[in-house]
Amino acid sequence: MTTPSPLSAGTPAPLRIAVADDDPDVRTFLEQFLPRLGHQVHSVAKTGRELVDHCRAGPPDLIIADVKMPDMDGLEAVEAVNRFAAVPAILVSGHAVPAWLERAKRAGVMAYLMKPVTEHDLAPAIALARRHFEELQALRKESAELRQALDDRKLIERAKGSVGRRVGVREDEAYRRMRTLASNANRKLVDVAKQIVGAEEVFHGLEEADRRSGRPLDPPAPRRVNC
User: Fold this and answer.
1) Distances from the Cα of 94 to the Cαs of 30, 68, 91, 117, in angstroms?
2) Given 1.10.10.10, 1.20.120.790, 3.40.50.1010, 3.40.50.300, which CATH number is that of 144-213?
3) For position 13, what pLDDT does the model report?
4) DSSP string, 15-43
5) How many CA atoms lie within 13 A of 176 on its CB side?
6) Which superfamily does CATH assign the domain made up of 14-117 to?
7) What is the predicted pLDDT for the residue at 133?
8) Confidence band (pLDDT; 50, 70, 90) for 39?
9) What is the pTM of this model?
10) Domain boundaries, the chain
11) What are the pLDDT digits (tens) for 156-169?
């Protein structure tokens, strides 16, 4: 079982933070100060590519990265990391460039700090990144659940129509029988619906094969099925 990230939990917890900056003074500052805030330094990188390699070996809870670095800039590195793991980031830069803002938003950047970074800046930025990420994850979960509920509803409607046609009953009766079958088998209604739709696709394939071969098709005689 995967251990939930502290950043996605409901209560504050120590974070494993990956640091990336080509300035040795900034790296030293972050390495020394993050543990004072109760966090763990996950890894320290000098380039964007090195940051990506560290995160691929084991995703951190948060990234703090300089924008301008050799080999791969901080934004490119954060974008690369988010292709295989959802990790929020704080970007650090000596210059404010408006063109970076839209890219930063898409890349999962939750806060932005101007150099020189101070102790007073860092703690609020981490707290802000934590809160924004939790809110975003909650919205994504809610959206995914709504999409799944809609997909399940559509599948059940398809199955209900199939049962009605095959058994020769109205859709409300077909739905009742599906629910009874699910209850008797101790299964979810949507799982029963998936099985019905799968079977219907098999029947449809067989009927199409008969149609192409020129064999006459006899409509199925309605029959009663006790559920």
Assistant:
1) 16, 9, 10, 9
2) 1.10.10.10
3) 76
4) -EEEEE-S-HHHHHHHHHHGGGGT-EEEE
5) 8
6) Response regulator (3.40.50.2300)
7) 82
8) very high
9) 0.64
10) 14-117, 144-213
11) 999 888 888 888 88
